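Regression report. Comparing outputs from two consecutive submissions.

Submission 1:
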Amino acid sequence: MTEATAPQSFSVAALLAGDRTEFARLVDATSGPIYRLALRMVDNPQDAEDILQETYLKALKALPGFEGRSSLTTWLYRIAVNESLMHLRKRRPDVFSLDTSENESDEEADEPVQVVDWCCMPEAELLSTETRTFLDAAVQQLSPNLRVVFLMRDIEKLSIQETAEALGLSEVAVKARLLRARLQLREQLSAYFAERLPRPSEVA
């Protein structure tokens, strides 16, 4: 889990009692990563702001029903993910739900068409603004189901268990989706780097 969402203790009793200080502490600790996740899901700053606000409003309303089966942070992630998917469905009604069967083709890990060895790429190229921009665009091309797992696990650094709890999936399903997302991104990045690798004549 990211530093901003490192395990912290929040008092559910205080939150239920309307303790503004405790709520402010919860927001301060979780709003950054939740906003980042929403922004990368919907790719629109204003929508991400709306999702952030709706996440905390819905959390306040639903707090009496919070059973403590997961951490408050994980619970907030689940609300934020659902809000993000709702925004995406408004744009594209055909977007899949997180409840898609784990046995459907979306969970099958395809082999990448090509995999280029990146060992010869200069570090500056790997970390260039152009490369990061390309990677961000590639992440946006993932299906919402794959994108959210990749973002939570590889970007926000949640554990497999935390990701599974936040998304209401089994750990097996999370691992399968994560593998598929990584393979799809590797395929795109391999093609991207292949165009930038020195040709044999250039390194001879």
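Submission 2:
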Amino acid sequence: MLKFIPMKIQVITLFPEMFEPVLNTSMMWKAQKNGAVEFRIINLRNFGIGPRKQVDDIPYGGGDGMLLKPEPLFAAVEFAKKYSPQARVIAMSPSEKIWNQAKAANYAEQNNDLIILCGHYEGFDERIFKIVDEKISIGKFVLTGGEIPAMVLIDSVVRLMPGVLGGETSAEIESYSHGDNLEFPQYTRPANYQGYQVPEVLLSGHHTKIAEWRKSNSR
């Protein structure tokens, strides 16, 4: 089995139970088994204030909704930093930086530890960004919280780490691995299914022609 210095990924969230089925299934489970990554889910509620463990409050200046308070967030990040002092702090939040395959590949290559903050309600008290290294969005749309975007970021990074996918070239030929190109169409047996035929060139065994066909059919 390959040996790695595992990437430590810590997630600070109000809903830790959301991560259990995702991080312990498929490639995320394999990555942990191979020692490529260690996951640690931190419940923000544990750092809440007072007997009710308050983590949110109304915004100054009025307005609908509640904001996540700075004190629990600062305390949770400080707690996470004790486990990984050099970790990069990421906030899943509306941002001009939209996540893409190139960023995922860069994070996988750097193999830096991560602390990921999941927003909720109307988002974060702005002061939390004083200790955040980068705000990241997965697209120009709004979700209930940052948990699903955090899962998207984690999955896209971890699957690109050495020894996770398995095939040496699997990640290199995927869609969006080279700009906006999409991967070529692929087929498996049977060669003819209900009249839908696999292109003859793929059945020819002629590797040069197959490579040319794949290149011309990448979109």
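Expected: both submissions complete independently.
Actual: both completed, but the second showed a warning that disappeared on reload.
Relevant detail on submission 2: The helical segments are 20-23, 26-33, 70-83, 101-110, 147-158, 200-203, 207-216.
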